[in-house]
Queue: 3 jobs
Job 1
Amino acid sequence: MADGKPVFQRVLIKLSGEALMGDLEYGIDPERVGHVAAAIAAVRERGVEIAVVVGGGNIYRGLRGAADGMDRATGDYMGMLATVLNALALQDALEKDGVHTRVQSAITISEVAEPYIRRRAMRHLEKGRVVIFAAGTGNPFFTTDTAAALRAIEVHAEIILMAKNGVEGVYTADPATDPSAEFIPEITHMEAVRRGLRIMDTTALTLCADNGLPINVFNMGDDANIDRIVSGERVGTLVRT
């Protein structure tokens, strides 16, 4: 763990569903979730207020056959429910590490999660609780990337930490398929949009640009990276205006 005072007081971490999948083809790997929870708990221990937005790709991947040919809105609602499953798994792992956690869902599931209420979320953060935002924005046709940008702006997060699965940051092309792809240490939001770099979807990037919200894209494969970023180290790619 890094020493010294964190450079950020409040951050929002965007976790893809794949970051919770480990080596499985789909689903949730409890060991991997435990590692992610431990990394978040270590940063929380340093006094950083943490919100999390989770994706659902790891579960929706297993449902893709069933969703084939389905109405887009219905498929999107299925994806929102997948993010709730991931949020509950992460909450359980965090609480096993002694971290007080609240799940807030953008669709009403009162038995397992609070409804999303902005002021309540901010109060939880002020009290040192980790808040996990589930179910995206609650609307079809919007991704969890857009939900991350929206929630980060709403709760006054200083930065979005965009966790990638096995990728160090932003490249000129997909490094898995193009060996000539070059790493980009820093770029502006609108330059990323212009060049078609798939950091976030265009709606999310534009929202961040309009509100001057920086994004740090990093590899979640190294559990110490979140701690390094909040300590002020340059890790991965920084996207800013």
Job 2
Amino acid sequence: MITHLLIIFCASILTNNIALTYFLGMCPFIAISKDLRTAFGMGIAVTFVMTLTATINWCLYEYILVPNGVEYLAYVTFILVIAALVQIVEMIIERFSSFLYVSMGIFLPLITVNCAILGVSLFMVIRNYSFFEVVAYSLGSGLGWMLAILAMAGIRSKLRFADVPRGLEGAGITLIIAGIMALGFMGFAGIISLQ
């Protein structure tokens, strides 16, 4: 059982990276990855929200929606839980790190509509994960998203000193780098995979 959970955890970080394999959560990934400190803060926030919402959503789905035959309310329920937790995270970040709150700007409340977070909750239903599998998958997916945004922020900080063609500056070169990073993460595909 532990080995199975470890495989799910590692696969969700590397081979099934939510940002670089499924390309979910790309808006904040591109916008926030200009600075390492901000990217780290956003990565922590997304990981926290992703893990907590997937866990809560699994409990609501398995113990309330399925027994009552109202699985069709899953989308609404999942989004309400995500929105509530993002509000809590936003208040905590505003209270304890005003720099991070200001630097994240509009993208902090937009975690609510980050499709990566909703995607993890929907993948857990599709894959019929148990509670511990959901915890391993959601934590791994959050850490994988954080790894991807930190790698992107590190590369973009080095690009400040590079001679990037004028037409590719900004989002253009960022998307090219994301594609190359995705190819790099595909190299792990033969090592670990989710079933």
Job 3
Amino acid sequence: MAGISINHYLAPPGYPLTSFLDDAVSAGATGIGVTERALSEATLPALKAMLHERRLRVTSVNSAGFFLWSDPERAKVQRATNTRLLEAAAELAADTLVVIGGGLHDMNPRDDWGSLSRARAVFEAELPAMMAAAQKYGVRLGVEPMHPLRIFTKGTLNTLAQAAALCDRLPGLGVVLDLFHVWWDPDLEPMLMRLGDRLRLVQLSGVTQPRHQNALPRRCFLTQGTADVAGVLRALARCGYQGHFEFEVFAEDLEGQNVADVMAAAVAAFASLSGGQECRS
């Protein structure tokens, strides 16, 4: 039976990790997406034991990469973070370590700040070393295309076509499809067919229309908003996708709603929208 994982980004500050795990089990989730904050709240052995006790698997560890720091100290800290996340993904038998390239704001103005082509070249040049390290740890990497609005803050890999071309050049690399970032792509289904088994993970949420002219869209329930979640699930089924699904919204998207209720609603909505399609769980 199809199932969905819940990403820990949903947990508000101060919401205990044990409560999050218990609520995920009660909601009927099949696993979790692990965040850096989750890793800061428990040792790896303790987290592994908690997951085993609750029969929850780890569908993702979030997020490594961020290769564009011009500041040497920030770059050094990020390299240490990436190693820590690789080790965590290996220890927790995570299905995928999510990789995000970093935004233009990470670059120093004196080092050609704002050069999109340079940022993309740096991202691609850094990936082989991380892929080699991941192979040593037995970890699968998935690069995540970000909405173009996030070029300055998160990532310069922005379309599934870019991601597929990158995978062509770097065999063994995979892709994470976050619907929030790619729902608008007119070539979405053809790109799913092209990616095939290089598609590592699908992260799902609804997408709200901005409330104000200059506001950004936000994540919402699977049954709300602009994105055709059911249509994307049907397209994935036609493409033979057999990987994991994660519900990914952030705590600030909840606007005071009860976390356990949101999890339960996400699991029920996914079961309804997917029509019981088979996937790994």
